[in-house]
């Protein structure tokens, strides 16, 4: 089996969707769930499923990204992942860190990239009057929310949508898209998945 490490910062609903998918004839298995926040709700959920967990709190590093990443790298390299999945991981990673996992690090982002890299994607899509919105899984490069697109899922924007309602509609699709892309990626396929 390919070994998959998942990096989270919060509740980890995408992480759980990925864990739940890696069963049976799936070519990958989880080897670590790692967070920059020791209080991330996802850590307990992963541990309850028997997956090794670790946390490196970014706050004591006070913006020293290189020092933080050196600590983050320790449990990550110990786990010897073949594939690293960012799943709601909310720290920007340096090019140096990313280059260690070049071609084997994935991210899920809540917009139809190249639209709306960065934060507040749902309110930006609403403010622009977009008729559709969605999510993207892409290979991670040194440029934030850039890199080859491996899959996208689309949702309609509805009349009267709030950012929260739209986010919930997108998140539901994220839980389908990310497992679909990971499975194909673990099989060596890079042709993009389209849902919705
Ligand atoms: C997801 O919507 C994910 O796409 C987004 O954070 C949420 C995490 O939810 N990621 C980003 O915004 C990355 N910049 P989860 O913890 O329940 O998976």
From TrEMBL:
Molecular function terms from GO: phosphoribosylglycinamide formyltransferase activity
UniProt cross-references to SUPFAM superfamilies, sorted A to Z: Formyltransferase
Protein's UniProt keywords contain Transferase: yes
Keyword Cell membrane on entry: no
InterPro entries, per the entry: Formyl_transf_N (IPR002376), Formyl_transf_N_sf (IPR036477), GART (IPR004607), GART_AS (IPR001555)
Pathway: Purine metabolism; IMP biosynthesis via de novo pathway; N(2)-formyl-N(1)-(5-phospho-D-ribosyl)glycinamide from N(1)-(5-phospho-D-ribosyl)glycinamide (10-formyl THF route): step 1/1
Domain Formyl transferase N-terminal: 2-182
Binding site for (6R)-10-formyltetrahydrofolate: 65, 107
Positions annotated as active site in the UniProt record: 109 (proton donor)
Keyword line: Purine biosynthesis, Transferase
Organism domain of life: Bacteria
Site (Raises pKa of active site His): 145
Transmembrane feature ranges: none
Catalytic activity: N(1)-(5-phospho-beta-D-ribosyl)glycinamide + (6R)-10-formyltetrahydrofolate = N(2)-formyl-N(1)-(5-phospho-beta-D-ribosyl)glycinamide + (6S)-5,6,7,8-tetrahydrofolate + H(+)
Alphabetical list of HAMAP family matching this protein: PurN
Entries under PANTHER family matching the protein: PHOSPHORIBOSYLGLYCINAMIDE FORMYLTRANSFERASE
Cited function: Catalyzes the transfer of a formyl group from 10-formyltetrahydrofolate to 5-phospho-ribosyl-glycinamide (GAR), producing 5-phospho-ribosyl-N-formylglycinamide (FGAR) and tetrahydrofolate.
Protein's name in the database: Phosphoribosylglycinamide formyltransferase
Protein's organism: Lutimaribacter marinistellae
